[in-house]
Amino acid sequence: MIDIVKNKCNGCGLCVEICPKEAIHMNIDQEGFLRPRIDASICVKCDICENHCPALMSINNDTYKKVYAVKNNDEVRKYSASGGFFSAISDYILRNEGAIYGAVYNSVWQVIHVKAVDSETRGKMRGSKYVQSDILKCYKDILQDVKNGEWILFTGTPCQCAAVTEYLKIQKAPIDKVIVCDILCEGVTSPRIWEDYLRFICKKNLAVIKNINFRSKIEGWKKIYIYIEKEDGDYRGSFDEDVYYQLFSRHYIMRPSCHVCNFAHVNRNTDFTMGDFWAYQRLPETFDDDKGISMVLVNSEKGKLIWDTIRDDFEYLESTIDIAKEKQKPLKTPTMYNPDRKRLWACYLHKGFLKTISRYTTYGRAVRIERKIKKTIKNAVFKLTRNHDA
């Protein structure tokens, strides 16, 4: 039986899919993360779950590595978090009548993985989503598509990609037409905090939300904004000012396993790795137009073959792995643990979201300043009125 250590489980759900006795189920913990629960009365201690757990894997893929800076056309990049490489690789799948699996928002703005066979659904997968997605419903669909001989693209966090790859391996499925692309991920955040944040922004009425863009380029690629389109007025928050971004960037609300991630290095077990090319200063000035540049790592021979097929669909420059590592921490080390994390969660669980952001973000200071200004104005008006009456 797998020893489910809380700070290592990444919530991929692979153990649920491969348990021969169906003894494992996923439950939501108090932080909002999915975690496996084993029914000891059914478990036969076959250790299949433990032997295939991505959290316990060793990654030794150092056989091939190429690094590129990628720019798709302006129209594609307008809807992309960085340079639009995902659109290029997924276009290849669509041209071959295949299926794309990626993260989208559902009707209540939770993040889930779904299947896309058309450009409209694929379009919903564009852009970053700083929340852990649920991939549990994808495993069997992916397997069926593979058995049907279809081209498949799966994109997700490194642990999710490892889980899908391991699942197909266990099922002895052919993977010659399966392309796996992981993202440069600093950590996934709590779906529970995400829901509370949206209720805070929308005054508890999620129905007013029309669209969410975690990486709006309203002021260019380098200035990060979350942009929420709402029927009662749009919301825009910068990386430094938005309370959700603050909780994320200060490492308060990431899944505990992200702080001990065994995939945070250059040796990736995928065909491609994609993210932002934040070391843009190392590129020719003419290449950076502040509309977004993707960093693409080609990690396998299969990836190289696909790259050679699609590379004429976009602009690119070759770089090096050393340059790639300069501005991308996920290629070097797991995200640092915040020693105040436990205190924040204790505050949240006992006092709620509003008290938590008041204490652990700049929201509390902003509220105090606003109250002080209102009080000052009220006193000034009172004095003017009293002097006028006198």
Give a short summary of the structure.
By secondary structure, this protein is of the alpha+beta class. It has helices at 14-18, 48-52, 74-78, 85-95, 119-124, 139-147, 158-170, 191-201, 243-249, 301-310, 321-326, 341-351, 353-360, 363-389; strands at residues 24-28, 34-38, 66-71, 99-105, 111-116, 152-156, 178-183, 209-216, 225-230, 235-238, 272-276, 294-298, 315-319.
List the helices and strands and how they pair.
Elements: H1 14-18, E1 24-28, E2 34-38, H2 48-52, E3 66-71, H3 74-78, H4 85-95, E4 99-105, E5 111-116, H5 119-124, H6 139-147, E6 152-156, H7 158-170, E7 178-183, H8 191-201, E8 209-216, E9 225-230, E10 235-238, H9 243-249, E11 272-276, E12 294-298, H10 301-310, E13 315-319, H11 321-326, H12 341-351, H13 353-360, H14 363-389
Parallel strand pairs: 4-6, 6-7, 7-11
Antiparallel strand pairs: 1-2, 3-12, 3-13, 4-5, 8-9, 9-10, 11-12
Helix pairs in contact: 12-13, 13-14
